[in-house]
Amino acid sequence: MDLFPRCFLLVFGQLAVGGFLALSVPPFHQIERGFYKSSAAVYLFVALLAAAGNTALLLQATASSTAQWFAAGLWWALVLAATGYLLSLWGERVVLRARAFVATWMSGLLALVVSAQLYRRAPMVSVETVLYPLSFIISALLLGAVTTGMLLGHWYLIDRHLPLAPFERMLKLFIRVLVAQAGLLLIGPLCLAIAGSAETGVSLSHLLADHRLLLGLRLLLGPLASAGLAWMIRETLKVPQTMAATGLFYIAILAVLVGEFLGRFILFRTALPL
């Protein structure tokens, strides 16, 4: 069964999509091009891992659906568009760069939406059809915000005269997405319990009966720990001390990653997007 590795690879795809989306937050003309080149290269590599991994699983599977191959194709579309965007950073073809960037995050979002439907057990016309991709996209934005925040923090060691505003904007994005995810983790299961399908109801019962500890760890090591670190980063930037804030972003990445991997393990065990 390839469900477990697909859930694992999903985190890499989410990081790539969220990372490219987060790159639109820092002002492009205030930061040296090297930041975007290095960051885009990181996210391109992660996207390549997700695309290659999903394709390898499909090639090894005894049976696969058209939707699975379509999702794999979208991940490769993300890789191709991201490659074009990265290469455009060495030139001044502004229109080409803008189009490549839009194609990158659009193909990534579409890949997440299609991939989300592969885990849905409910009918097409259901609350799950909206909730699953919404959860996947918010997780992607959270991974992208915290990782881009860390990468941007390193750039302050290179450019000593870079104003603090871009770093503060990345922190605000991280906090807002963190609040959105915490709200979804609280409201989402309630919506599924009230308006979800019978299959989803069984999954919720399975989660609460057999995986309470896993759910508790997901909430503790994900949103709660990350919220504490976000507060510490905000207070550190008031000093301001960008080096210490970057170190805290490192720890925040670990907290977010652990939370997201636990969430994908819940997805594997119960098919619920937590």
Please, could you describe this protein's structure?
The structure is a single chain. With 274 residues, the protein is mainly α. The protein has nine helices and no strands. Helix 4 (94-119) packs across helix 5 (128-158), helix 5 packs antiparallel against helix 9 (242-270) and helix 8 (212-237) runs antiparallel to helix 9 (242-270). It is globular and about 55 Å long. It starts with a helix and ends with a helix.
- Report the uncertain regions: none
Helical residue percent? Answer: over 70%
Determine the N-to-C terminus distance. 21 Å
User: Helix and strand succession?
Assistant: HHHHHHHHH
Gross geometry:
globular
Largest sheet: none
How many beta strands in the DSSP annotation?
A: 0
Residue share in β-strands: under 5%
Q: Provide a count of the helices.
A: 9
Rounded Rg? 19 Å
Structural class: mainly alpha
Mean pLDDT figure: 88
Helix and strand arrangement:
Layout: H1 3-22, H2 33-60, H3 66-88, H4 94-119, H5 128-158, H6 165-195, H7 198-210, H8 212-237, H9 242-270
Helix pairs in contact: 1-2, 1-4, 1-5, 1-9, 2-3, 3-4, 4-5, 5-6, 5-9, 6-8, 8-9
Quick take:
Helices cover 83% and strands 0% of the residues. By secondary structure, the chain is mainly alpha-helical.
Keywords:
274 residues, mainly alpha, 9 helices, 0% strand
